[in-house]
Amino acid sequence: QSYYDRIMPLYQNFQALREQKATAAAWTKWQRETNAELATFLDDLAETAGSQPDKLARQHMLLAARDELPMLLKDSKEKPGRREQRFLYHMDAARRLIAGLPPAAPSSSGGPVATMKDSDDG
Questions:
Q1: Residues sharing a CB contact under 8 Å with residue 107, sequence separation 6 or more, in sequence order
Q2: What CA–CA distances, in Å, run from 22 to 15, 39, 82, 117?
Q3: Half-sphere exposure of residue 101, counting CA atoms within 13 Å on the CB side?
Q4: How many other CB atoms are found less than 10 A from the CB of residue 19?
Q5: For residue 113, what pLDDT is reported?
Q6: Where are the alpha helices (DSSP H) in 49-115?
Q7: What confidence score (pLDDT) does residue 115 get?
């Protein structure tokens, strides 16, 4: 399973909780489960990420998973915020790089990111 396909379901769960207007207990559970899942692969992702072209997709996923995803509760719990926009930018850049496309310029829209299937990036 690729890193991309491990990170995106965590975000999709976050979105579902926001839409449901989840309780504090549900948010705490999401944060605990997300941190536990991230702990299973962030070290490896950090070791294999970089600014070189063959490592850049992993760098974007690292920034999204390590720096933005755990912080979504701070500004994106009730509506999309800056952290969510940055998360989506990095995941979209990773998706594009994995597909052999150039990363898009940062967007202020923070639009949705498609889920990758059958990727060999992790």
A1: 85, 89
A2: 10, 24, 20, 29
A3: 9
A4: 8
A5: 44
A6: 56-62, 72-75, 82-98
A7: 39
The pair of structure tokens assigned to 60 is: 């974007």
Alpha-carbon distance values, 85 to 20, 38, 65, 89 (Å): 20, 19, 13, 6
Residue matched to tokens 């294999």? 48
Tokens of 27: 């948010």
Residue type, 96: R
Scanning the structure block, which residue is given the tokens 């299937």? 117
Those residues of the chain that have pLDDT short of 70 are 106-122
Tokens of 9: 């379901």
CA distance 108 to 105: 10
User: Residue with structure tokens 């999709």?
Assistant: 12
